[in-house]
Prior knowledge:
This protein is of the alpha/beta class. It is 36% helix and 15% strand.
Amino acid sequence: xxxxxxxxxxxxxxxxxxxxxxxxxxxxxxxxxxxxxxxxxxxxxxxxxxxxxxxxxxxxxxxxxxxxxxxxxxxxxxxxxxxxxxxxxxxxxxxxxxxxxxxxxxxxxxxxxxxxxxxxxxxxxxxxxxxxxxxxxxxxxxxxxxxxxxxxxxxxxxxxxxxxxxxxxxxxxxxxxxxxxxxxxxxxxxxxxxxxxxxxxxxxxxxxxxxxxxxxxxxxxxxxxxxxxxxxxxxxxxxxxxxxxxxxxxxxxxxxxxxxxxxxxxxxxxxxxxxxxxxxxxxxxxxxxxxxxxxxxxxxxxxxxxxxxxxxxxxxxxxxxxxxxxxxxxxxxxxxxxxxxxxxxxxxxxxxxxxxxxxxxxxxxxxxxxxxxxxxxxxxxxxxxxxxxxxxxxxxxxxxxxxxxxxxxxxxxxxxxxxxxxxxxxxxxxxxxxxxxxxxxxxxxxxxxxxxxxxxxxxxxxxxxxxxxxxxxxxxxxxxxxxxxxxxxxxxxxxxxxxxxxxxxxxxxxxxxxxxxxxxxxxxxxxxxxxxxxxxxxxxxxxxxxxxxxxxxxxxxxxxxxxxxxxxx
Length: 569
Ligand SMILES: [Zn+2]
């Protein structure tokens, strides 16, 4: 047909040539674009630094070497203005948000601990009596638990079954027909379990033994390589040793912030450098290891063994490894985020990251790896430190909140109207309210009003009033945190820099909706990413959809974030 129409037409020939040229260019461009958006990614490495407030990377930059944060920032897309969008900035909430790309209102992890109304007791987020821990030693002595959330755990079983949304790891498993190898490793159980999702496998550090452990959800028995790693008992090699500064003390910005009366001495660990770990029969020995750069170094060493033994990143099916480093958060809780200890643990983490990246380059190739770095939350400076500097803040404890709420209850003729308070949620006694035939909404509002007037409380908001409240950023954060079954009746928010938590060894906290807790780093580095700094506001819920977009798959089922364009260009 074309010949018939164009036989003697020079114009037509030119037209055909033009079309051919256009097609050639179009195909050529498509090929190039395709190569840019579908690089050969064999490993997705998701690094989470527990408690790394975004500004700490800037504050300690001078102490960094070339291979860690500096390398990632120089080669990657750096988002400087990433904030969590929900109110309860805690570890399980942050990690599950990173994993699922959605809010606690959807994934259900509303806090490290919530009140299980049916059981009538507190529940620790990932506990699961049906999936006990696999023992690593015949005679394990129990260490002293200083993690206040872990202390609330009723059983020693752990699994992700309580997470109500699919994760990126689950999507990868489904997309590649179960052929992706998926692992989560961390110093903390909740940070390994959440990131490995329902389809992956998780290992975490035990503060009882220094071993990396798992539960029957994942394995019937430890793989040989894990038993062999644990048999080396590396943590015990630090008996009688101490955490010392990496560099000369005078080179640190915070060299004067070492001996401060409001820091915590973990029974002999001391408030100043060097911090002695003690002996292995000391019930805090393995905890002190985690409250030091050694905790991260052991996490890395275990991860290296995992990468080698499980042969991650060795074929064309992308594998997934989440490593969540826990030492920065642990150090923050006892010494505060503006301590010499904090500066040193971040500087030493930088060396650990450099070690990790060099190892990945050798085994998988950074050219085949998508690296994502973020944090699960930030950290508040301690009220005493802020008060020293002129900003007045103080400490509030749960019994004060409960007493103030019960006082309001008495005005309604009900004694002990509070069923439970574990920050941020206050749970009321439904039976007493029903028996007294009270208007529940009126009671909730009266209590919320009285708590809002309390010194150090910024806002207390009744869950039943959440949809009616005039929207502002904080109300939006509380809404995003609300899950109908797990959340309490009243959400309590302290004033900025006020401490609201149990009395105990933990003296610096995160968990508020304020910027120092919501602001976290996000860095993407992979083949094809164009190095740049992005200042617009983005959110950690965008991370999972971005990884999904790079791989070419649909975001995790409940994801509410959007792919970050700068990573995809
Ligand atoms: Zn955390």
